[in-house]
Amino acid sequence: MDILDNLNDKQKEAVLATEGKIRVVAGAGSGKTRVLAHRFAHLVNNIGIDPGNILCMTFTNKATQEMRTRISKLVASGNTNDFVCTIHGFCVKVLRRDIHRIGFPKSFSILDDDDAEMLAKKVLELHGLDRTKKVVEGLRKDVAYFKKITCPNYIMEYILPEAPKYKDVSDFTPVETFIHYQALNYCLEFDDIINFTLHLFNTFEDVCSYWQRNLNYIMVDEVQDCNGSDWSIMNIISDFYNNLFIVGDPDQAIYEWRGALPQSFIDWNCDKTIVLAENYRSTPNILDVANCVISNNTNRIPKDLFTEKPSHDNVIHFHGENEGKEAAWIAQKIQSLCEKSGNFSDCAILYRASHLSRGIEQELLRKKIPYTIWGGVRFFERKEIKDALCYLRLIAGDDDLAFSRIVNTPSRRFGDTSMKKLQSMASEQYLSLYDALRENIESWHNTKSYAPLKNFISLIDDCRELKDVSSVSELLNYVLKESGLSEMYRTDTEVERLENIEELISSIRFYESANNDNEISLNTYLQDIALFTNADYKKDGKTVKLMTIHQAKGLEFPYVFVIGLSEGIFPSHRSMRERKLAALEEERRLMYVAITRAEELLFLTESEGYNFQTSTDKFPSRFLTEIQQSFLIREGEMEESLWKGSKFLSDTIDREITGLMPISRFNVGDEIAHQYLGHGIVIEVSPDGSRLKVRFGSDETSDRFIMAKALL
Ligand code: ATP
Ligand code: MG
Fold first, then answer.
1. Which residues does 393 contact at the CB level (< 8 Å), separation at least 6?
2. Which of 23, 30, 34, 219 maximizes ligand 1 atoms within 8 Å of its Cβ, making it the mutation to test the pocket?
3. What are phi and psi of 295, to 5 degrees?
4. Distance from Cα 35 to the centre of ligand 1, integer Å
5. Cβ(250) to ligand 1 under 6 A?
6. For residues 117-128, b (16+ Cβ closer than 10 Å) or e, as one string?
């Protein structure tokens, strides 16, 4: 059977359009990636092109593996060669072949995060500057900005042996020294890979023409997420044969925040555009929901997907009274779906931000359902969570492992030498490391670590007293603030760390409230949590897959759960604050990507509780209200007033991002019910409606100023 027989007419047309500049624009699950794989196979099997003359570029390493597998099943020889790769992967091949032209050895190295951090530290030391995490990250950010914005010509200015600033290192700023070191040590950062390749192409005609003449056919998947440099590479290497085949879906553009240019895909001047409209992945019930959501975007070319697949059950919206119930419902659903087959890998759980995995992970561990976090780390193994829990462990009692982890986190200038010295004191004096430090603190007199270590000791001692009178969540909040950890995460470039910490605190609050508030001792909490921190787990095989929606791009699963669908969490309040309405549309495309990962069944879940993103109670996401109600089955009891809260919160967010004054739901004289303070009467409303003065008793001593959003 010819491979073309497995395609519909439009797909076939795309596969057969081998010559020229061709674009395939199509919705999710319509076979774009399938067309790419079949086109590769058609070129090799039917036309006889050597696979070594076809370049097929994908967006991620995972997608590359998937593409190779698909192609090798189709290509007669099974030989798919190395030219199925990511754009970075292709550029590394170009550099390995020709980077010696600019004086670099072919064995140049590529710095990973740790290497780049070490280099930054070395540079800071040379400049006599602080080497705290904050400064190190600051320098790395400055280097990236310098290369991208201040001096895009940095290769010619600093890197080449003949560059004007190659030798003249006097008066170098730390950023310049960093780049100078890269030149001396022949090491590239990730972003340099594309810049160096473009430099080689633009400078050496023969390098450029080698690739142009060798690559007869070039194909690129997920082009809506390519940035300006990616486009330059594609345009240059296809400039000789002019055979460039690109596929994408503007409705799935989810990387504008990182510089992607989806409009370039729409505006591309090509010989032919082929549109695929039939979806082969999802049931009509799922597609109806996807079409509903995405049609709310104003900046889009309207297109609806259809499918010939038979109908299945409607999409379920589950509302949980709290996050525990949301997680329990999901786990129970997974058990019943996979009970017979044991094939947990049929299920994927998708979320907007990685901190949202915590609740469901705990429930899966409790129910012994195997799971894997795709492209990420399990919640209780994340660095910041381990740090926070180690503080608690050290407060709870002598714990040398916990001590070793946190004594220098954040930095107290307590390095390896100090640690060795302390360890020998501890073993000579039969003391724990912490007690040894307390007893021998004067040995650090006259060192830079003396003051921070003294503060550390008094903090831990204070907390050891506090632990009997305050709740675990208060204690953790206190220690994070006083130790400087919160500040360290706040200034961290990865906002995710702070979100994870906030998630940990809010989970402890939930745990306390579920157990009659302050009755949980620190020891009880740590014992309970050990179940999750020390959990054994299967690494691969038939496991439920958990991942962020960004990671799920291009993938498909029979059963998909999109969780944490609360307004402000998804769509993300943080992104919307940063990028306004453009972010809202991108968030909606992300929701569309999430929905369209599902083949058979889709579950959309959310719950009540506290939302630290918006500092309000949680309400269902506006995306749920955008779905025609008849397309959904509702499960879980839910008060109608929550929909009003959702509307009010989304209006408030919209007014905030569009710069309009917030609206006030409250007027003087209104009666309100406060969760903790009870009934009250509004006696004043601030001009912008955000603050209320409320009288909770009979006279003014009972007046309190309350943020209006806290009453949603
Ligand atoms: P996405 O936008 O999510 O990246 P896509 O457009 O790349 O999706 P594919 O992943 O190529 O879509 O295809 C979706 C599913 O539909 C796959 O399981 C694929 O094998 C199947 N499929 C596509 N076209 C056909 C066809 N003509 N016959 C049978 N199955 C098909
Ligand atoms: Mg695809």
1. 399, 401, 402, 526
2. 34
3. -65, -10
4. 8
5. no
6. bebbbebbeeee
Counted residue by residue, the chain has a size of: 712
β-partners of residue 272 are 22
3-class DSSP assignment, residue 697: coil
Q: How far separated are the first and last CA of the chain, in Å rounded?
A: 62
Homologous superfamily assigned to 315-378+536-658:
P-loop containing nucleotide triphosphate hydrolases (3.40.50.300)
CA distance 568 to 79: 48
Closest ligand 1 atom, CA of 554? 4
**Tens of pLDDT along 603-623?**
999 999 988 878 888 999 999
Q: Pick the closest to residue 504 from 633, 661, 379 (CA basis).
A: 379
Rounded Cα gap, residues 708 and 352, in angstroms: 27
Rounded CA-CA distance 335/430 in Å is: 51
Residue 233 to residue 467: CA distance in whole angstroms: 59
Identify the weakest region by mean pLDDT among 104-113, 405-414, 555-564. 104-113
Tokens of 630: 């008849």
What span, in angstroms and rounded, lies between the C-alpha atoms of 462 and 445? 22
Tokens of 45: 């099997």
Task: Give the tens place of pLDDT for each residue, 498-543.
Answer: 889 989 998 898 888 877 655 788 988 898 888 787 766 555 578 9
* Separation between Cα atoms, residue 193 and residue 185, nearest integer Å: 15
The owner of tokens 């995995």 is: 357
Q: How far is the CA of 391 from the centre of ligand 2 (A)?
A: 45
In angstroms, rounded to a whole number, what is the distance separating the alpha carbons of residues 510 and 418?
Answer: 40
Alpha carbon distance 371, 543 (integer Å): 4
Q: Find the helix or strand (DSSP H, E) in which 195 lies.
A: helix 190-203
DSSP-derived secondary structure letter, 632:
E
Enclosing H/E stretch for 479? helix 472-483
Q: Residue 70's closest CA among 105, 103, 31?
A: 31
Residues of the chain within CATH 1.10.486.10 domain(s) are 380-533
In sequence order, which residues have a C-beta less than 8 Å from that of residue 695 and are 6 or more positions away?
680, 681, 683, 702, 703
Best mutation site among 33, 35, 219, 590 for ligand 1, i.e. most ligand atoms within 8 A of its Cβ? 33
pLDDT of residue 707: 80
- Cβ-count burial 494-529 (b if 16+ within 10 Å, e if not): eebbbbbbbbbbbbbbbbbeeeeeeebebeebbeeb
Pair of tokens at residue 577: 């604050």
Domain with CATH 3.40.50.300 in the chain: 9-94+199-278, 315-378+536-658
Measured from the Cβ of residue 302, the count of other Cβ atoms closer than 10 Å reads 8
Residues belonging to the active site: 32-33, 221-222, 252, 597
Angstrom distance (rounded) from CA 525 to CA 505: 12
Q: 380-533 maps to which CATH number?
A: 1.10.486.10
User: Which ligand 1 atom is the nearest neighbour of the CA of 30?
Assistant: 6
Query: What is the enclosing helix (H) or strand (E) of 273?
Result: strand 272-276
Strands across the sheet containing 703-707: 671-674, 678-685, 691-695, 703-707
Q: Which CATH superfamily is domain 9-94+199-278 in?
A: P-loop containing nucleotide triphosphate hydrolases (3.40.50.300)
pLDDT in tens, 564-612: 999 999 999 989 988 888 899 999 999 999 999 999 999 999 999 988 8
Pocket of ligand 1 contains residue 31 by CB under 6 Å = yes
Whether 597 contacts 555, CB under 8 Å: yes
